[in-house]
Amino acid sequence: MKKIFLLFLFVFPSLIQAQQFAVTFGENLSKTPLDGRLMLFIADNNKKEPRKQISDDADSQLMFGINVDNWKPNQVQIIDSKAFGYPIRSVKQIPDGVYYAQVLLHKYETFHRADGHIVKLPMERGEGQQFNEAPGNIYSIPVKVTLKKASNQLIKLKIDQEIPPIPAPQDTKYIKHIKMKSKLLSKFWGRDIYLGANILIPEGFDTHPEAHYPLAIFHGHFPADFDGFSETPPPADMKTDDYSARFNIYGYNKIVKEEAYNFYKQWTSKDFPRMLIVEIQHANQFYDDSYAVNSANIGPYGDAITYELIPYIEKQFRGIGKGWARFMYGGSTGGWEALAAQIFYPDEYNGCFAACPDPISFEAYSSIDLYKYPNAYYYESPWKRTPIPGKRDYLGKVKCTVEDMNYHELALGDKTRSGGQWDIWEAVYSPVGSDGYPQRIFDKTTGVIDKKVAEYWKEHFDLLHILKRDWATLGPKLQGKIHIYCGDMDNYYLNNAVYLMEDFLKGVKNPTYGGEVTYGDRAEHCWNGDPNQPNYISRLRYNTMYIPKILKRIEESAPKGADLTSWKY
Can you tell me the distance from the alpha carbon of 305 to that of 105, in angstroms, rounded to the nearest whole number? Predict the structure, then answer.
């Protein structure tokens, strides 16, 4: 019946009730049917491909998405007014004009999980869950189209391109790459699942075979390779016309390369502490990062990292292999992970240095109180709807609302499958729904908060609540290990939860927490605790900022008889 209807549309296009886009792909791209999220991108310019012009900010272009199941070669899929759109809801709202149109299929695979649920999700393919860069995704070349709302148009778009595989990074003298199959994660997902890591080994590693090293885990988003380290300086004639809109500065590309070279010089200098630095690759079916905890929807990543990956790395690269010699640091996602892993595995790690952490209390879930607010999109009022802000600059100017950000994600994918920030929080923290996908913390279209899900979040992943609830047993194991840094104008309001955590930590007794919480005046996201450098510099110095702090912690806390000499040369 559907085939007859589509043929009818092609033969009698004047009877179409609204603007529509007919999409096909050929057998050269796949002879078998495909599942996934089919996305249409519309841009009013051709500065970049439309698929690369979608963002939370005001300059975002348009996109619309639908699910496709068992989509066969040469079969027509129609994107029409029913497709959910962002920033506008429907294709029928597109103003008349000349645009550039492009379509892309973000492929889904079927997983038979150990919990009995069968789900369709995008497999991570080496790109860190970026839909517009994922190898194997298929897309069309942008074409110029003239859109007129008053006319009944059927615009045909042909998918004829495929994103190629990403070459694996190569080992160097200092940077090594490993990949290991996780038994825990493979069992959960019903297929082989791997963890990877990029490892920076110290100067003298090969010439000091007797040395065993402390381990520093730099948590963060998916690292394709070890970033921020370069054995060569930037070219003297390197162009500096690159503009960073985030930092309002020209030449930031050269600054980044200069900092990477400066780190290399420090790393190989005589007095820099000799340690292993590890960046973990744990992209998954929902995001570029697992949040390094055990999750009902994502799987036992906390156990897999702590009990499988870390010992594997320490054995292969001569780590000391004891909890007192393991440390964590990171910013944003990495900041939350460092603090969460320290709390959930208090004996396995000896300190966390958490910068601008994602919400560490759900009383301040960005700018939302999940326990008191009825709605995540609007402040409660009997007479008006005041939008809840989602992102700001250092002067407090709102860039987008929570609703904007979540509508963006809903266009990218339903059932928590967008690969976006709000959806990964939901995938990590929520219980599993009856359909096998994460239960919504709030309705994605209306913003209404589900208080039962919020209670689950509170008991399992609200880090402040967990510390308050369990301080009698956790406190003695965490004394001196918690260090938090945040800009007081964090773009995503993350400082609000840090204030709440600080109030608690400074008030605890038996024992006192023995760490530090500091803020950067008017500093935005990714401020890491350095009051002497602008944010665009300090964010490039996580390693050199925290390694000396780790050394100090080792000297203060190492147990009697610990190896404090083999790695000091």
Answer: 32
Closest CA relative to residue 339, chosen from 501, 215, 459: 501
Among the candidates 92, 127, 162, a domain finishes at 162
Location of structure tokens 């200092």: 174
**Cα-flanking dihedrals φ and ψ of residue 243, to 5°?**
-110, 130
Where do we find the tokens 């700018």?
367
The pLDDT value recorded for residue 6 is: 42
Residues 6+ apart with CB under 8 A from 507: none
Report the sign of the C-alpha dihedral through residues 28, 34, 37, 40, in that order: positive
In angstroms, the CA 124 to CA 469 distance is 36
Q: Give the pLDDT score at 11.
A: 42
Residues of the chain where predicted confidence (pLDDT) is lower than 70: 1-18
Contact 405, 391 (CB under 8 A): yes
Rounded to an integer, what distance in angstroms lies between the CA atom of residue 34 and that of residue 480?
52
Tell me how far apart the alpha carbons of residues 449 and 465 are, in angstroms, rounded to a whole number: 19
**CA gap 514, 504 in Å, rounded:** 13
Contacting residues for 195 by C-beta, under 8 A, at least 6 apart? 179, 180, 182, 185, 280, 281, 282, 304, 305, 308, 309
The b/e string for 548-565 (b: 16+ C-beta within 10 A; e otherwise) is ebbbebbeeebeeeebee
233 and 336 fall within a common domain: yes
Both 82 and 187 in one domain: the answer is no
Verify that 124 and 22 share a domain, yes or no. yes
Instruction: Return the pLDDT at 17.
Output: 54
* Domain C-terminal end among 443, 459, 475: 459
Other beta carbons within 10 angstroms of residue 46's beta carbon come to 12
Residue 379 within a domain: yes
What's the pLDDT tens digit per position in 434-481?
999 999 999 999 999 999 999 999 999 999 999 999 999 999 999 999
Neighbours of 8 (CB within 10 A): 12
Q: Comparing C-alpha atoms, which of 157, 208, 111 is closest to residue 417?
A: 111
Task: Give dist(CA 349, CA 219) in Å, integer.
Answer: 13
Rounded CA-CA distance 223/312 in Å is 19
Is the peptide bond preceding residue 382 cis, with omega within 30 degrees of 0?
no
pLDDT of residue 334: 98
Whole domain around residue 498: which residue ranges?
A: 175-361+463-557
**Same domain assignment for residues 446 and 340:** no
Burial class (CB in 10 A: 0-12, 13-18, 19+), 236: exposed
The tens digit of pLDDT for each residue in 5-16 reads 444 444 444 444
CA 168 to CA 224: how far, in whole Å?
9
Reading the block at residue 150, the tokens are 């008053």
